[in-house]
């Protein structure tokens, strides 16, 4: 009887110890295909990377990596870094392509890192109020009146917002 009891206890000990070390089968999840990072490919000299546009209210800017279009809805402004400082007196040729889906347009100018307006004309408002709805393809020049680092777009008048535009191309050459 002692032998049976000893064998039973030993068997129970083996069973219990093996239960604690048994590994559960790992559940495998299907691999999630990672989307490659967006890579900007300029199509012409001076072509700007619209994905670098910034605003105080980032929720108003949406960049579509598939189409390369920057949608701006309800933003006070957005700025596009030039990538380098441009000296006073430099004339920057601007080619701006997009679509006005709203009722108001925008103004454009050049700024430094502190958003100080440094452009001649002071700002380009001929494309501001009254910009017709639909596609636009604009060509104009701005002359830097100080050391500039950004191309700046803002609502058509003081205190107004860019209501709804899509920008598909900004080309800046100097």
Write a structural description.
- With 174 residues, this protein is mainly beta.
- It is 11% helix and 36% strand.
- It is built from one helix and nine strands.
- The protein has one helix at 2-21, and strands spanning 61-64, 69-72, 77-86, 91-100, 107-111, 119-120, 134-144, 148-154, 165-173.
- Strands 1-2-9-4-7-6 form a six-stranded antiparallel sheet, with no helix packed on it.
- The radius of gyration is 30 Å and the shape is elongated.
- It starts with a helix and ends with a strand.
- The model has no long low-confidence stretch (mean pLDDT 84).
How far apart, in Å, are the first and last alpha carbons? 102 Å
> How many E-type strands?
9
Cα-based radius of gyration, to the nearest Å: 30 Å
Name the helicity range.
Answer: 10-25%
| Overall 3D form | elongated
Write the element-wise H/E pattern from the N-terminal end onward: HEEEEEEEEE
Mean pLDDT: 84
Could you give the order of strands across the largest sheet? 1-2-9-4-7-6
Figure out the total of helices: 1
């Amino acid at each position: 009887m002692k032998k049976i009891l000893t064998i039973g206890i030993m068997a129970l000990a083996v069973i219990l110890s093996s239960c604690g070390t048994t590994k559960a089968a790992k559940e495998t999840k299907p691999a999630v295909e990672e989307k490659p990072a967006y890579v900007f490919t300029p199509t012409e000299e001076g072509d700007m990377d619209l994905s670098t546009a910034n605003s105080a209210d980032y929720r108003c800017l949406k960049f579509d990596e598939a189409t390369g279009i920057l949608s701006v809805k309800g933003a006070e402004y957005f700025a596009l870094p030039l990538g380098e400082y441009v000296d006073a007196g430099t004339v920057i040729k601007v080619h701006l392509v997009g679509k006005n889906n709203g009722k108001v347009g925008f103004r454009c100018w050049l700024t430094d890192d502190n958003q100080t307006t440094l452009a001649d004309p002071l700002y380009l408002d001929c494309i501001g109020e009254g910009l017709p709805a639909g596609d636009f393809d604009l060509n104009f020049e701005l002359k830097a009146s100080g050391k500039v680092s950004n191309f700046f777009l803002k609502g058509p008048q003081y205190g107004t917002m860019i209501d709804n535009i899509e920008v598909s191309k900004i080309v800046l050459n100097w």
